[in-house]
From TrEMBL:
The lineage of its organism: Bacteria, Pseudomonadati, Pseudomonadota, Alphaproteobacteria, Hyphomicrobiales. Gene3D superfamilies: Cytochrome C biogenesis protein. One of its GO terms (cellular component) is plasma membrane. The keyword Heme applies. This is Cytochrome c-type biogenesis protein. One of its GO terms (biological process) is cytochrome complex assembly. Residues 11-153 form the CcmH/CycL/Ccl2/NrfF N-terminal domain. It comes from the Bacteria.
């Protein structure tokens, strides 16, 4: 009984824990709405050091600087779009975890579809080629002479 209660308390503590972010206490804005906007923006910006993490999740010093920059821009009165545009202008489109659809990123968006279409055409072409391929030629019936030779060979093998 005591073990099951301990287990339940530990499980409750583990599952009720909030997600961990790299945002430090001194970075958090006093205005909850502004902080929520900052978190939403920083969740979509790439850490240039880690590259597969958002600046919200990264503990790299550069990510901290970028989080502070986002918060400064929001405190200055910029909209969310203006903050993201500022970061893109300063660091390039690579700073976005989800690239925007444009002509120079079209290959990123079109490549999976193109590969799928090419694969479907390859499979259809392969199936059509196999069905169009002629089968084995029909074997003609054995003549009487060939049947006699075959029986003679078979009888020699049986006798040996």
């Amino acid at each position: 009984m005591v073990r099951s209660v301990r287990f339940l308390l530990v499980a409750l503590a583990l599952f009720s824990a909030p997600p961990l972010y790299a945002v430090q206490v001194d970075e958090i804005l006093p205005d909850a709405k502004l902080e929520a906007r900052a978190r939403a923006i920083s969740h979509d910006l790439r850490c240039m050091v880690c590259q597969n993490q958002s600046i919200d999740d990264s503990e790299a010093p550069l990510a901290r600087d970028l989080r502070l920059l986002v918060r400064e821009r929001l405190k200055a009165g910029d909209s969310d779009t203006q903050v993201v545009d500022y970061m893109v202008a300063r660091y390039g489109e690579f700073v976005l975890l989800r690239p925007r659809m444009s002509w120079h990123t079209a290959i990123l968006w079109a490549a999976p579809l193109a590969i799928l279409i090419i694969g479907v055409f390859a499979i259809v072409f392969s199936v059509l080629r196999r069905s169009a391929r002629p089968g084995l030629p029909e074997t003609e019936a054995l003549t009487e002479g060939e049947k006699l030779k075959l029986n003679a060979i078979a009888s020699q093998l049986d006798g040996a």
